Amino acid sequence: MGDPFVDVAAVVAGFPVDDFSEPDLRQLLTHTRRVENVVKGLVYRIGARADLLATEGKAAPSGDFLGNDGKTKSSSSRRDSQRSKTASENPSVGDAAGAGDIGEDHIDSITRRLKGLTDEERARVDLEGLLKKAKTMSADGNGRTPGFVAFLEFRTETPGYITRSGGTCP
Questions:
Q1: How far, in Å, CA of 62 to CA of 80, rounded?
Q2: Are 61 and 67 in contact (CB under 8 A)?
Q3: Max mean pLDDT range (32-46, 105-119, 142-156)
Q4: CB 3.0-4.6 Å disulfide test: which of 24, 108, 119, 139 passes with 20?
Q5: Chain centroid offset of residue 143 CA
Q6: Dihedral of the CA atoms 3, 76, 51, 49 (nearest 10)?
Q7: What SS3 state is found at 47?
Q8: DSSP code of residue 94
Q9: How far apart, in whole angstroms, are the C-alpha atoms of residue 129 and residue 142?
Q10: How far is 33 from 31, CA to CA, in rounded Å?
């Protein structure tokens, strides 16, 4: 066996879909999206590790490190760096991302919701409840049902979760 990362990339790049039926394609897409989330979860763990090494002077901070020597757009690496920080500061978010249960839009929404909260307010956030909800909702919704982003961003009072004003609802 050669380099496992190159081998996996080759398998994915050469995966045959020509003979798939529509139901098979839908199932493959579901699994592919989950794997995509798992891979992004690995990126966030890499960013968190780079940040830890950066505090010791042994690596560049995640914002620079994830830029892949200028091969990745800086806006993309900045967003991935912020997601890394959210996953590192909130291990259950990192675990959910690593398992493929949530995607980058879910993490971005959680990050925005936690931003600016005091430690006391953060302690009152039912993060496990939010993650449970995120696992059952697409990030964007489907036209008839609001997605997780809308659930967090546009509802001013969500039972059991932090409100826009920083309080919690019963």
A1: 8
A2: no
A3: 32-46
A4: 24
A5: 22
A6: -30
A7: helix
A8: H
A9: 22
A10: 5
Alpha-carbon distances, residue 119 vs 122, 165, 166 (angstroms): 5, 15, 11
Q: Which two tokens stand for residue 86?
A: 């959210």
Angle, CA 7 vertex, CA 13 and CA 67 arms, to 5°:
75
pLDDT attached to residue 152 = 64
**What's the CA gap between 155 and 133, in Å, rounded?**
14
Burial class (CB in 10 A: 0-12, 13-18, 19+), 61: middle
| Chain segment 120-136, per-residue pLDDT in tens | 877 778 888 888 888 88
Q: Cα 133 from chain centroid?
A: 14
Name the percent of the chain in helix, strand, coil, to the closest 5: 60, 5, 35
Q: For residue range 1-45, list pLDDT tens digits in order.
A: 567 777 888 888 888 899 999 999 999 999 999 999 999 999 999
Cα separation, 142 vs 146, in Å, equals 7
